[in-house]
């Protein structure tokens, strides 16, 4: 790719990054789609990072906060999603830890309460209990915290599943 075309792609990426957050993996995919080779993509990301258009930590913190708060995801699902985007494990860990524990627990409780309302209360209480557990685990919450939250929510004093 010639220098003029690279500059056009760079300008386009700067414009995109000024509107919303992107991680280096997202920019890499967009660069390849725009016809850049590996060397040009690496240069593109280097320039965008240097000019603070791309910051994986800033992106990951916003991603974690939004997915937990708005989508009701648990930490495990956030970690998996960020890994698929190629974000470094240390950055992912810092991003998930940056989300307030009280917020995470509040969202988890809200999500479980909404699911409980959707489940038919006439069903077997054990079935409802187990469905809530599975639902929360699929959302990316840890078993220990889910088990306790579901016990509290359903009023069960269940020792094992």
What does the model show?
By secondary structure, the chain is mainly α. It has helices at 3-19, 24-33, 38-50, 56-69, 75-84, 89-98, 101-118, 125-138, 143-154. Helix 4 (56-69) packs across helix 5 (75-84) and helix 7 (101-118) crosses helix 9. The mean pLDDT is 91.
Q: How many DSSP H or I helices?
A: 9
Q: How would a crystallographer describe the biggest sheet? A: none
Q: Output the structural class.
A: mainly alpha
CA radius of gyration: 21 Å
Give a quick precis of the structure.
The protein has 161 residues and is mostly helical. Helix content is 73%, strand content 0%.
Question: What is the topology?
Answer:
Layout: H1 3-19, H2 24-33, H3 38-50, H4 56-69, H5 75-84, H6 89-98, H7 101-118, H8 125-138, H9 143-154
Main attributes?
161 residues, mainly alpha, elongated
